[in-house]
Amino acid sequence: MLLELSPLNQPAGRFGSADAMAPKSRSYQISATPVTVFGHLLFIAVTTLVLVWLLKFREGLASESANKLKIFNLHPLLMVIGFILMAGEAIMAYKSTPSRRDIQVQKAVHLTLQTIALGCGIFGIVVIFKFHNETNMPDMVTLHSWLGMITICLFGLQYLLGFFSYVFPGAESYSRAAYLPWHTFGGLLIFFLAICTAEMGLLQKFLSLFLTRSQEALIVNFIGLLLFLFAVAVALTVVLPRY
Predict the structure, then answer these.
(1) Alpha-carbon distance 93 to 11, whole Å?
(2) Mind listing the pLDDT tens digit of every residue in the chain (243 residues)?
(3) pTM of the model
(4) Which of 47, 178, 187, 239 has minimal Cβ neighbours within 10 Å of its Cβ?
C-alpha cells in the first residue's frame, strides 16, 4: 500500500500549483492539516484503549504461556495497532511531514511505516494460527478470518507493486504516473477492508465473551467507533489539499 504522491500532493511545477490543478478540492474549504492532527489523536486514543483492554481486562500478553488467551491477545494488538494504525499513518505521511517539497523524506516515512505494518500483519496471522493450533481450534472458518487473510495478501501484493514501481528498481516516469491513481485507489480499498475486518473481529470477540453493560463492553465498542473515525480521517487526508 505504498501510496505515491497524487497530483494534489505535488509541489508547484511547470503545470502550475497543486491548488490550481485541483479546483474541486477547494469546495471542501478545509486543508488536510487539521484532519491529520485529528487522525494522530485517534491513533493515540485507539492505542490506549487497546492496551487497557488487553492488559487490564484480558489478562495480558505473551508469546508462550500456559494461559493461551495471552497468546491470542497478541493478535488484536498486532492487527489493530501494528497493522491498521501504522498503515493509516503511512497513508497520511505525505500530508503529515513538514515539507511537501522533500518528497524523498515523505516516501521514506511512508515506506518505513508500511514495512512495519506489513511485518505486524504477518506476525499477527502467525500468532492466531499458533493459538488455534495449541487450543485445537479449526482455522479459517469465519468470515473475519477469510477477510483477514485476503487483506494481508492484498496488502503484501500492493506493497511489492509499489516498491518495485517507486523505490527499486523503479518504473519509467510514464508508467509510474499511469499506475499512481490505481495505486492510491488500491491502497485505500485495502485499508478500508482492514477496517471492516477489524470491526468484524471486535464484534466476534464481543459476542464470544458475552459482554453486556460493562466497562469492557464500552472499551470494545469505543475501539470500533474510533477505528471507523480513524478510517474517515485517513480518507479525508488523501482527498483534501495540504494547504
Answers:
(1) 15
(2) 444 444 444 444 433 334 433 444 456 788 888 899 999 999 999 999 999 999 999 989 998 888 899 999 999 999 999 999 999 999 998 887 766 567 778 888 899 999 999 999 999 999 999 999 999 999 999 999 999 999 999 999 999 998 888 887 776 778 878 888 888 899 999 999 999 999 999 999 999 988 888 999 999 999 999 999 999 999 999 988 877
(3) 0.84
(4) 178
Contacts of 84 (CB under 8 A, 6+ apart): 117, 191, 194, 195, 198, 227, 230
Contacts 24+ apart (CB under 8 A), 35-39: 35/233, 35/236, 35/237, 35/240, 36/92, 36/95, 36/96, 36/233, 36/237, 38/233, 39/88, 39/89, 39/92, 39/230, 39/233, 39/234, 39/237
**Owner of C-alpha cell 466497562:** 215
Q: How many residues does the chain have?
A: 243
